[in-house]
Amino acid sequence: MKTTSKEQHLDELKAAQTNNRDQITADLFVPAPLDTAGQEEISKPSVSFWQEAFHRLFKNKGSVIALFALVILIIVAIVGPSMNDHTYRSQNLAHSNMPPKVSGLEWLGFDGKNSKGMDVYEAQHVETNYWFGTDEFGRDLWTRVWKGTQISLFIALVAATLDLIIGVIYGGISSFYGGRIDTIMQRIIEVLIGIPNLIVIILFILILEPGIRSIILAMVITGWVGMARVVRGQILQLKGQEFVLASQTLGASNARLIWKHLMPNVMGPIIVTVMFTIPTAIFFEAFLSFIGLGLQAPLASLGVLIEDGYKSIRFFSYKLIFPALVISTIMICFNLLADGLRDALDPKMRK
Amino acid sequence: MTEEILAVNNLHVSFKTQTGTVTAIRGVNFKLNKGETLAIVGESGSGKSVTAKTIMRLLPKHNTLISEGDITYEGRDLLNLSLSDMQKVRGSEIAMVFQDPMTSLNPTMRIGKQIMEGLLKHQHLSKKVAKQKALEMLELVGIPNAKERLEAYPHQFSGGMRQRVVIAMALACNPRILIADEPTTALDVTIQAQILQLMKDLQEKMDTAIILITHDLGVVANMADRVAVMYAGEIVEQGTLDEIFYQPQHPYTLGLLRSMPNLSASRSEPLIPIPGSPPDLATLGTGCPFAARCPYTMKVCHDFLPEHTHLNESHTVMCWLQDARTPLTHIPEEVGSAK
Amino acid sequence: MMKKNEDLLVVKDLKKHFKMGKTSTLKAIDGISFTIKKGETLGLVGESGCGKSTVGRTITQIYEPTSGEVIFDNEVLHTKQNKAVQQQKKRAMQMIFQDPYSSLNPRMTVMEIISEGLVIHSPELSRMEREEKVNELLELVGLSKKHSQRYPHEFSGGQRQRIGIARALAVEPQFIVADEPIAALDVSIQAQIVNLLKKLQEEKELTYLFIAHDLSMVKYISDRIAVMYLGKIVELTASDTLYEKPLHPYSRALLSAIPIPDPDMERSREQTILQGDVPSPIDIPSGCRFRTRCPNVMDVCSKIEPVYREAEPNHFVACHLYDETVMSREDAVALHDC
């Protein structure tokens, strides 16, 4: 907005100028000393790459909304399970299959009525409201959904972090040293990519006991390859850039080259890749749980909940809807944020 | 005798960027006559390429704003043509050659096909005739073994040969205007000499008018009939080749000429650079954009934009030095002697 | 201390070949020898792909030579020397690069960029001392200390190139390889950079190897000029001599190809336009490597490679036209044909 008003101001000035050409008096026609210092002056304020990137990110409505939604989701996922007295594993068979009910939100469908339109809470004289309803064992779904979100996010974050560490080190070594080392390391990656990762993951989980640790391990065993390739490609490109050569002719050590010149310039693509890895990891976890290779009861993840809900979709659709909504929101938000980050960090967009 | 085929009047073009609107062209006027070569000279960022792309309507729609002006070609305003009409003009009547011959050819398509594409589309020739014509074009631009080369892909050509193919493509439909945007900047000097010679020969044969965009005054001296010097989105001086080189009136033109290396001068003669850097278009004030770098600045230059002074039919300059109120002692020798 | 007129850099039969796949080799430099005296500027001119940049990078030890010697300051340079000596040599030899956009790290401030050499070579300096030194350097290249906290993308091409020069000067080198430092700049800015380099040479007694792709600007800065074609030097002589009396047909063609910014001269002069393209350095022609494009080609050129020799005092050329023994034989053949 500021710039447009400045533009208008300039336009007005120009208009005034053309109208007032007679303001140009003879006394203005005197030599003005050349301002040699001013010639090199830069009028724009100084901004670093990261400041500019954040500025651009926050101008992108999609990613701001996504970021906001993610923050809320994460907060709710952390505090949600302790917002009522139920735990994710406490069963109450008397209260099984209760539909969601929130007092005050009846008009939104949280009215405690089942698919036939009967108010189950009244019929069974249940006093407490289950906000997201209960499952067949009478476990509170609100608690389970947020506990599940916690676990899903935890798995995704840990997997993405491990991908990041392995991928950056592997890709970095491969591209920085180049030559034979690079050739051998790339062949290994090609072999890993050649085997469909789903098969690797499934086999891995069949060998290990199903559980959080084995899911993470299974995902990381092939997941880091993408990061390694991104890092390798970027560093290979940067290595030929003249500023790296300049630093070499100054006699910089390898450590200096890596940490001062290469890494800061690869950070952008790394961050973007991580942001895209997280939703993929969440999806993989859900998928594994869905085909029965995921977490074991009573532990819940979003995938486990969706699988449970899917079984009784016709009568108790709410069991599917809530975890599905949460997982979709998380996936969309991470993707939107990653997209925004990619636009903000892409050096090609800079001028 | 001279027949005008293109006229650009008071053109203003701005771009929306992340940080605000930047005006790249602020009031450009020029005419192009049949069969002549008009050179547009300027430094990077002076708006010379933008001018060319505006004529071809090749600028991205979503962030370009053409706030004023018109481009008249054969009585029609190119800026108001529908997209399909414009597509008919592009290629068949006005063609363009870009700086980088590597990227202006489709790498997955045979050269012959690429030349034929325009012929099939604009001249509705049969495939056989179009192929014959493509062959003739390749021979015309001096590609050896033209017949076999029709079936080759762009990567099988060297840089100079690729630029020849690009020129063949541009001229295939016998356009009346060829816009060449730095056609030799990416090439080596010996290859540049070949391409310039080729363009001159072809112009003679086909009677095409050329708008040559370049930053190299040597190329201008070699090719042009008339010259327009651009600075910060404005044509600061315009005239015939001799007027610009021998009677330059604008301090910027003068500075450009002085900073050019002279092969015959001894090496102890110093070069005279233009001090400072080109201005940032986003933060230009109301005065003359060259004022901050001009050795002849006056007070008036910083606040008021000079008007175009017509010295004669062909020579126009935009500078306060032309004003009668400028003290004679302040006028540089070169400018003064021409007056 | 070294005396003037002493050779600072001696290059002896330097070769740099790159392996391209299993069978072919790219002969970027194929045996070149030259010397640069202290305080002198040698211009190295040639078209793209002739190996001129590889020469610069091999001399500054970015590339390891395939064979041949680089003697700098009376010491043979090679990578197996001990670290301390290498660091010292690296410090004495600096480079200025072509592309003002990729030669500065976009994530560093100007202060960090220029002070990098100081951090590496003079770790004993305090932060304050370093900053003071950087500000001095900025002023030396015509910028001011106000610019030191800015990032490279905020500067124009010419200003960036000056930052690159300040970075090279920070470690007080004796010798600077300038790899096409003006090729990417606007004409009006090119002159600024050339003048700045000349001024710095006088003030700091620098020695330059100035690499360029055409002959127009080089003469303003070079004392002597070497013309390279496909990995070899074809002609080397004093800069004025090269412009007045070029011997090798390639040098003549290069000179003739430069468009002159003077319409009358352009109209009146005869231009020799070379036909064809530069052959690939993977597949170099037999005999004289310029024969495929040479307007004066003879039979002998495809059979025997011309010797690089002193045709006239201080004027070296590699061409059969200036080899008496070959020329007399050619004449004999020509006579015989009649």
TrEMBL record, chain A:
Cross-referenced PROSITE patterns: ABC_TM1
Example of a GO cellular component annotation carried by this entry: plasma membrane
Domain ABC transmembrane type-1 per the UniProt entry, residue ranges: 149-338
Keywords from the named record: Cell membrane, Membrane, Peptide transport, Protein transport, Transmembrane, Transmembrane helix, Transport
Location(s) in or outside the cell: Cell membrane
Annotated membrane topology: Multi-pass membrane protein
BP GO annotations: peptide transport; protein transport; transmembrane transport
InterPro entries hit by this protein: BP-dependent_transpt_permease, MetI-like, MetI-like_sf, OppC_N
SUPFAM superfamilies cross-referenced by the UniProt entry: MetI-like
The protein's name: Oligopeptide transport system permease protein
Residue ranges of the TM segments: 64-83, 151-176, 188-208, 214-231, 266-295, 315-341
Protein's UniProt keywords contain Coiled coil: no
Main location: membrane
Family named by the database record: Belongs to the binding-protein-dependent transport system permease family. OppBC subfamily.
Alphabetized Pfam families for the sequence: BPD_transp_1, OppC_N
From TrEMBL, chain B:
One function term, GO molecular function aspect: ATP hydrolysis activity
Intracellular or extracellular location(s): Cell membrane
Keyword Membrane: yes
Membrane association type: Peripheral membrane protein
Main location (coarse class): membrane
SMART domains: AAA (SM00382)
GO cellular component: plasma membrane
Record keywords: ATP-binding, Cell membrane, Membrane, Nucleotide-binding, Transport
Span of domain ABC transporter: 6-257
Keyword presence, Heme: no
Domain of life: Bacteria
Biological process terms in GO annotation: peptide transport
PANTHER family, A to Z: DIPEPTIDE TRANSPORT ATP-BINDING PROTEIN DPPD, OLIGOPEPTIDE TRANSPORT ATP-BINDING PROTEIN APPD
Family affiliation: Belongs to the ABC transporter superfamily.
Name of the protein this chain belongs to: Oligopeptide/dipeptide ABC transporter ATP-binding protein
UniProt lineage: Bacteria, Bacillati, Bacillota, Bacilli, Bacillales
